Amino acid sequence: MNRYTIEHHVMVILGGGPAGLTAAIYAARAHLNPLVIRGPNPGGQLIQTSTVENYPGFANGVLGPALMEQFEIQASRFGTEMRYGVATQVNFSNHPLELLIDDAYVLQSDAVVIATGASPQWLGLDNEQRLVGRGVSTCAICDGAFFKDQLVAVIGGGDAALENALSLTRFSSHVYVIHRRNQLRASKEMQKLAFQHEKISVVWNTRVMDIVGEDNVKALILEEVNTEASSCLLIQGVFIAIGHRPNTEIFRPWLQMDEQGYILTQPDSTHTSVAGVFACGDARDKIYRQAITAAGTGCMAALDAERWLQKAGLIR
User: Fold this and answer.
1) What family does this belong to (predicted)?
2) Is 142 a known active-site residue?
3) What would the mean pLDDT of 18-46 be, rounded to a whole number?
4) Distance between CA atoms of 24 and 237, rounded to whole angstroms?
């Protein structure tokens, strides 16, 4: 990385979602002058969310983009610097830590907070992204209440799919679980709960070929895997639950991760396997994946980083 222009910072935060911006708020208030590299999707997954009704402090709900705008304003108020950009390479072999941004310049940082989040896996259908927030979702906990007394479908066959389905039964009139195989991957206990629920029906050996709707989801076009017979399922909402992928690939040579790529942290902390590197939000959380939990670990990362910097003698 020697051929690039080099800047030095006390703290660099990778990611501009709830975790990264909360870390920035705490770090800025501690006078660490953090630099946030906002990543390819500033605001994280909330940018694709319509009304957020489960974030504390907004009794009447708040639009996802508006919530993230408030995060940014608050972080900037305390002196956070924000830049558009993506970390394309890192070198965690020595201190200060090095980050190559946009293949254009190098940031040297005493501490790095990784808040790069995770991306939901999609079916790859033409109408899928167009109808996000208008009937297409990846989070039943977030959006289930919008489908009260409506017909909905969940796509997937793992624990996440059945958790979504069971959550939706509290609101929707009926939930179809659509799975392309003849058996589910979910745990036996989850399957038992789903099979026993009167509001859940499993549609076996079926793949989704299209999502129908102009302004809102109206139906799914389905295909039976074995016979290739087509059918139309009338619904008002579809929840894609075929997994998430943490945005952590560039850190794989340097940090300990689980087999899915989620960054492992030390117990009761955000410390990673490399000193001075901290992980928060969905880059390390495959269980809760909520804005409020991401923000909470962002706070933890900033506090952990500040204490580490003090102990290392890098700040007073």
Assistant:
1) Belongs to the class-II pyridine nucleotide-disulfide oxidoreductase family.
2) yes
3) 92
4) 35
